[in-house]
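Regression check, manganese (II) ion case 587:
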Amino acid sequence: MTKNPELAAWVDAVASLTKPDNIHWVDGSETEYGDLIKGMLADGTLEKLNEETYPNCFLHRSDPNDVARVEHLTFVCTTDSEDAGPNNNWMDPAEAHTKVDELFKGCMRGRTMYVIPYLMGPYGSPFSRAGVEITDSAYVVVNMRIMARIGRRALDHIEGGNSFVRGLHSVGELDPEKRFVMHFPEELMIKSIGSGYGGNALLGKKCHALRIASWQARTEGWLAEHMLILGIEDPTGNKTYVAAAFPSACGKTNLAMLVAPPALDGWKVWTIGDDIAWLHLGEDGRLWAINPEAGFFGVAPGTSLSTNANCMHTLGRNAIYTNVAMTSDKEPWWEGIDGPKPSELIDWQGRPHDVEKGPAAHPNSRFTVAASQCPSYSDQANVPQGVPISALIFGGRRSAVAPLVFEALDWEHGVFTAAAVASETTAAATGKVGQVRRDPMAMKPFCGYNFADYWAHWLSFKERSEKLPKIFNVNWFRKDANGSFMWPGFGDNLRVLQWIVERCQGKADAIKSPIGLLPDGKDIDLNGLDLEPETIDALLAIDPEIWHTEVEDIDEYLSSFGDRLPGAIRAQIDRIKREISESQHAA
Ligand code: TSX
Ligand code: MN
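Current build output:
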């Protein structure tokens, strides 16, 4: 129940449309959580895992047709289709409402309708935003309790007169033919039906904190980004905060929880967030970041003590696992986890595992766990003003072309490099391996409006501050002629972060090239690494021939946004083309 008349009226209207048997206002309490879990154990939605080794952990197996986000069924419904842009599917808002409301009609008959007030961002932060998700899925409620701040205090925020995003969700018939994720940014509304999975169903995450928030951020002068946030502590105890955007399958969660290699004594990485950053200009002109989320909804396969020890130490208790495999001891299991593969496994569909039928854990299987359990969780993660960002980092998976690291020449060039982010597909995502996909700012699936307008918004920060972060690009995935990764990656990425920190402090040098500022190989600390000096030089090499082609490709992609492409982006393309051809003639 609520004192807010708009919220009460909306809940009534949704109930008359969906016809639930019961309405449950979610308070977020431990007792309520226990009751929901009990119900889901009874109806088979959850299975209890080994209480000795995985206390308070549960396994959920989703419908096999419902295992990932559905970009082709995700729509941005704005009055003018141009506002959604070529980067989004568009539908007329009235038409979209009619279409999904037909599917919502009576869909909660025989079910409970849960009303979840939630807050994205720390309590007491001026940057936090509220939402209310109405759902008929208890699985969604328990996941939202981990991923967001839900219940009484969120409702207080709304009843205090703050606006809120309305999210209506139903699992519907779990029929891919009757599945839609609709965004109405002009109404601060989301309607999602036909899927119970992660990004389609936990509406606070991708739908609200990225698609709707990016739209709000443009009108209000801030940024909602697909970025991890971390703090880098040097041996003197000084901390530098950075935010970093990567397309999927680049190891964002691993970077967010990086463990320093032994040779880098005294250095340490602190985790603030692994997926989303909300960035605001402070009165001091710096960009300040909060993590709107409270938990991690991460991909399980590949996570191990060697790739992400902090994550493994986060996961062992109070976690919900979705579509992983299970051992005969009822422990969660996935491809890439530590230890030998058990001879007996139950696969993600609940069948005895048979390699002929594919991997034991679904490639997109997940864990949901509270960020506060992470050993590297920063004591700054809940401060209302956020952390001051010194560097913005963009990355991608590129076996060739992109060097290990470079710094953008200035803000405009940095925005251009971010708009030009691309990554090679891995089998996990599409089945097709090694295709280069453009994924500007790693926001291709998440920007709630026209990318051209989004770049213009990014560029507009230049006029508003002289203390903006430096912008860097990284690539952990360059390969040699034999097809082997040249850079060890993982904890050793801290060596690259060190150079970035030193650049921010004005301590490290850089060499100018047409594509940006590069470190001298000697300026990357390779102490304790078995890496030939030639290898670091090769990792930092720029081939004008290859870059000529790359810039042509970037030009073609960016030009597809037509007249709305900002002139400053066009100017960067032209400058780099000119400078590359000059360097080719000089060579
Ligand atoms: O997450 C990764 N990161 C970021 C870590 C902080 N991965 C896994 C990507 C899949 C999600 C990486 N894979 C990284 C990386 O930096 N680098 C690589 C490529 C690689 C893989 C294996 C090795 C080295 C590099 N192994 C050895 O050198 C022994
Ligand atoms: Mn993400």
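Comparison notes: The longest strand covers residues 112-120. The mean pLDDT is 97. No diff flagged against the previous build.
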